User: Fold this.
Amino acid sequence: MKYFILFGPPGAGKGTQASLMVEKYSLLHISTGDLLRKEIENGTELGRQAKTLIDQGNLVPDEIVEGMIDSQIDAHPHVKGFIFDGFPRTVAQAEVLERMLAKRGHQLTGVISIIIDDEMVKQRIKFRATQENRVDDTKDEIIATRIKNYHSKTEPLIDFYKKRDKYFEVNGAGAIKEIFERICKLIG
Ligand code: ADP
Assistant:
């Protein structure tokens, strides 16, 4: 079983690249952001809790997303592998993921990190706001909070995975197809 993490700041294009990987490699794409938005749409209690945090640009509690990932893995025993997008986002989540895979006798295949700078993050999110209806994409201060949270809580994962020799970078600037070719070269 393959387990890839698509890593990068908000707006790096993780979702876009994940769909291309799904087509080419028949993997299952699991986006914690999409799963949370589905909970909100369905008006669940979990969705209500998550909405306030997401709309402020903050992360939802680790246990919530960890539980979602665990049940998604269980729900798809016959796939070739998974692409996690937006997870893990904290060192605590990465540690839990390691245990979740170990208890199944599996391990992470690799982390593909899409590199773009903060200016490009802002431009991409502004563009996405014109295409999709996401409250967290519209206000400058919410976007700033998300970028700040990315640097303080998510970026430490780079060292975490470098230490385990699982970390690979691709340049996230350029056309969607070019970036996808860079990813394909990495994973072969
Ligand atoms: P983006 O990558 O553009 O920030 P996502 O769709 O991945 O968008 O996530 C949207 C929001 O959902 C995040 O800002 C955060 O509030 C919440 N979220 C998603 N994944 C996680 C996670 N692994 N841990 C905590 N919060 C998460």
